[in-house]
Amino acid sequence: MTEEVCGLRTPYLLFIGDCTEPGYAKTAFGLRDWAGDKCVGEYALPGATVSTGLPRMDPAEAAARGAKSMVIGIANSGGRIAPQWLPALEMALAAGLDLVSGMHAKLGDLPGLREAAEISPGRLIDVRQPPAELPVATGRKRSGKRLLTVGTDCALGKKYTALSIAKSFAARGVASDFRATGQTGILIAGAGIALDSVVADFAAGAAEVLSPDNFDDHWDVIEGQGSLYHPAYSGVAMALLHGSQPDVFVVCHDPLRTHVLGHSEFPLPDIEQVVELTIQLGRRTNPAIRCVGVSLNTSALRLDEANDLLAREAVRLRMPVADPIRRGDLFDSLVENCLAP
Q1: Range of the structural domain that residue 104 is part of
Q2: Phi and psi dihedrals of 250, rounded to 5?
Q3: What is the CATH number of the domain that holds 288?
Q4: In what residue span(s) does the D-glutamate N-acetyltransferase-like C-terminal domain sit (predicted)?
Q5: What is the pLDDT of residues 185-210, one digit of tens each?
Q6: Among the listed residues 268, 273, 195, the one whose alpha carbon sits nearest the alpha carbon of residue 237
Q7: pLDDT tens, residue by residue, 115-154
Q8: Quick check: helix, strand or coil at residue 162?
Q9: Residues 156-171: pLDDT tens digits?
Q10: Which listed residue, of 15, 16, 180, 238, carries a Cα 20 to 30 Å from 102's Cα?
Q11: Residue 3 above 90 pLDDT?
C-alpha cells in the first residue's frame, strides 16, 4: 500500500546504495549515531565505498532479524533516487519492509515502485512532506529562547551540534526541544519540518511554526540547513535564520574542507565571514542575535591534533570552540556560553 506521511516502524535497515561520498550518506550516519538502537544493519550495492560499520545484509535477512523499515540513507544533491536503486527498493517491499525516504523525489512517482507497493504489505513513506497550509512569516517576536546552528557549508555537523547541545541542555535540567528541519533530524526526533521541501514564500513561516511562543526560560535548539554562502542552498539558510529569530547561534565548520561540497569552484568562507553575515542578516528579525561559539568537525584528526586545533581556534576567535562529538571541557564551555545571559 502507499502512504505519504505516517508513523515510522522500527527497527531500520539503512540503505546506502552505491554511495562513494561520505557527505552524501549523512542520513545513514545520523541514524547510526543518534538512533543506533533502532538500526539492525546496512544494505549496500556493488560499487559502494561508504559504510556505517553496521552489519551488511539484504532486505530479506534484515526482515528475519526483526527490521520493519528500510530507510534510504542517502541525501545527495537534488534528492534524487537513482534508477539503479529501484530493484533493491522493490526487494525491500517484497520482504515486507516499509520503504522510508527523505529524498525530494517521491517514492510513489517512480516507475514500478508504486505497483510493487500495491502488492506488498510494506508502505511507501515520504518524510520530506511539509504540513499543509503553512503561513507566510510575520517577523513577530516570539516568547522563549532560540539557538540556531549555522554552517560554512552543508553536511559538516549542524545537526550533530544541535542534537548534542539539546542533550546537554536536558542534562542540565534546562527546558528545551530539538527542532528538526531536515529529513534525518525528523527521522531521529520523530517530528519536524523539512525546510527545503517548503515553497519558498512559506519557508520562513515554517520556521516560525517550528519554534512557536514558549515559556521565557524554554530553549528551542534548531537544526540549521545549508549555508548563507552556499551557491545553491543559501535560500533555505536565510529563511531559517529570519523565521527562527535565534537569540544565539553556533557556527559549524569542517577545518579540513576547503571548498563547497559538490561545488569545487567555490572556496569555503572563513568562520569570521559567517559570523559577520549571520549577525548582519539575523538582526532583521532579532536585533539582539549573537554568536556564542564554534563547532568544529575534527573526526578526521587524532585526539591530540584536534585538541590543539580547538585550543588555538578558541584563542584566535575569542570564543568557545569545541567538537560536540568529542565533548569534554571545551564542549561544556560552549554549552555554558549558550546559556549565559
Answers
A1: 12-126
A2: -120, 130
A3: 3.40.50.300
A4: 136-328
A5: 999 998 899 999 999 999 999 999 99
A6: 195
A7: 888 898 899 999 988 888 999 999 999 999 999 999 999 9
A8: helix
A9: 999 999 999 999 999 9
A10: 238
A11: no
CA gap 335, 164 in Å, rounded: 9
Using CA atoms, how far apart are residues 203 and 200, in angstroms rounded to an integer?
5
CA-wise closest residue to 77 among 181, 179, 153: 153
With residues binned 3-state (H G I as helix, E B as strand, rest as coil), the percentages for the chain, rounded to 5, are: 40, 20, 45
C-alpha cell at 336: 555554558
- Tell me the C-alpha to C-alpha distance, in Å, between residue 78 and each of 59, 99, 295: 26, 19, 26
Q: What pLDDT is stored for residue 1 in this prediction?
A: 33
Same domain for 287 and 184? yes
What angle is formed at CA 324 by the lines to CA 153 and CA 156, rounded to 5 degrees?
A: 15
Cite the DSSP H helix spans in 5-120. 26-34, 59-64, 86-94, 113-118
Strands (E), the chain: 12-17, 39-44, 69-72, 98-101, 124-126, 145-151, 176-179, 219-222, 248-253, 259-260, 263-267, 290-296, 321-322
Q: Are residues 149 and 284 in the same domain?
A: yes
CB 84 within 8 A of CB 45: yes
Query: Please, which residues have CB within 8 angstroms of residue 259's CB and are 6 or more apart in sequence?
Result: 265, 266, 267, 268
If asked whether residues 89 and 189 sit together in one domain, one would say no
Residue 134 lies in a domain: no
* pLDDT given for residue 111 in this prediction: 79
CB 209: neighbour CB atoms within 10 A? 16
Among 250, 244, 233, 239, which residue's Cα sits nearest to residue 164?
250
CB contact at 8 A, 14 and 39: yes
Mean pLDDT of the chain: 94
